[in-house]
Amino acid sequence: MSGFTSSDNNKDVAVDLIEILMNAALNVWYIFPIILLTYITTTPWFKGLWGEFQVNLILKRLPHNEYRRLKNITLPTDNGTTQIDHIVVSKFGVFIIETKNMKGWIFGSANQKLWTQKIFKYSSQFQNPIHQNYKHLKTLEALLNINIAALFSVVVFIGDSQFKTEVPENVTHASGCLSYIRSHSAELLNQQQVLDIINNIDSGRLARGFSTNQAHKAHVKEIIKQKTCTKCGSDMVLREAKKGQSAGSKFWGCSSFPKCRAVEKFN
């Protein structure tokens, strides 16, 4: 009689199955990194990072002896932080650059709260980048204590996108930002002022790192929460007082005005 049992046969089958699976895994191991890389490149985090990298390469074309570049600057504000993609400092002014890595058709105007991205039949809205960059500009105005006339907001779209409505000249696509920056040829700052501005930004910025990024993300989420009217649920719109003692100050007003007259303090 044979000395083998059914238990031995089961073990042999299990060993053979494990060997087959291991050989199969060894033959297709390269697929898993590809899947992981594909997933990462589709995340908003990577798209933003890739867009900023491309803009940084574009800005390197500016003569270094005339234009100084700073990137990924997080500055403290009275109620949190604000993050600026790029700042270009020169005797021709300070250019605050907001990057958008998007594709499809882009619809928007200077005064609209939300702009629209359309890819075939899919449409989505995003915050007006001009308004988004305004806070950056005002933060730098306070930090640097210089005339706002020397500060310029620039919005740069990167990616396979196309403007389908007329946009202001400071909203550009890719290397168009260079033309806008170079179009400012009047000297607004002397060499010492340029150096002081760079030193003030470097000394005022928060240390780059995970904790700084997480704190900024939490602050952005909190801002988004504040944009919903607590009375009727409509979106809140950032407005500016035109009369009275508060003239010139910002406040949140309900978009359903005059039906809803709810207002909130803007910090």
UniProtKB/TrEMBL annotation:
Annotated SUPFAM superfamilies: Zinc beta-ribbon
Entries under PROSITE patterns matching the protein: NERD
Lineage, uppermost ranks: Bacteria, Pseudomonadati, Pseudomonadota, Gammaproteobacteria, Alteromonadales
Xref: InterPro entries: NERD, Topo_IA_Znf
Keyword Transmembrane: yes
Keywords linked to the UniProt accession: Membrane, Transmembrane, Transmembrane helix
Spans traversing the lipid bilayer: 20-40
Protein name per its UniProtKB record: NERD domain-containing protein
Tagged with keyword Transmembrane: yes
Domain NERD span(s) in chain numbering: 47-163
